[in-house]
Write a structure and sequence with these properties.
Radius of gyration: 23 Å
Number of helices: 2
Structural class: mainly beta
CATH topology of the largest domain: Jelly Rolls
CATH superfamily of the largest domain: Galactose-binding lectin
CATH class of the largest domain: Mainly Beta
Strand order of the largest sheet: 4-7-14-9-10-12-13
Order of helices and strands: EEHEHEEEEEEEEEEEE
Oligomer: single chain
Length: 199
Amino acid sequence: MKRFLLIGGLVLSFSYAGESILAGERNMSSEVDKIRTIFDFCKKSDVEQWQEINDNVMGGRSRGEASAGKDCSLVFSGSISLENNGGFSSIRSIPDNYGLDEYQGIRIRIKGDGRTYQFRLRTDRNFDGVAFKQAFNTIPGKWTEIELPFKQFLPTFRGKIIEDARSLEAKDIRQLGFLISDKEEGPFSLIIDNIRAYK
């Protein structure tokens, strides 16, 4: 939209960008509407909803835990041991109905140590059973944002892919989790800044 300004007898014209700014604001608002924060870990209760499950449930000696990190983050850290046929550590959220039926996947901002991790979803409230997994890599000491589409999660049971299992339905998701099982001994650390769902 054109506007005119009178300065010292001269008529100057300029473009009024108000409409463009409003359009940009509408686009930004639209983008925000497509993202839903599930955990941002700024509240103590967010951290307290995560519990560790390590290979000691089957006699292993790995250790890992969830703890509050700096600047509103969750830290998944510990050490992997391959003794006694062990080799995994995990953390998992307390079962809840996350209401993700309108969303297409999970977006996570993380900083890792160069090791490979899995993000896991469960559609029940049970301790054991089928989990849907998707692996992701980390870059040592660097923040990265990863997107994990629901359609790419694979059904697994105790480390093995289930060929005839039904596909993941977002509306059924009840538990979220992280797991490390890369067959490498030694310490690990994954910092999670936030977990969001996207449309």
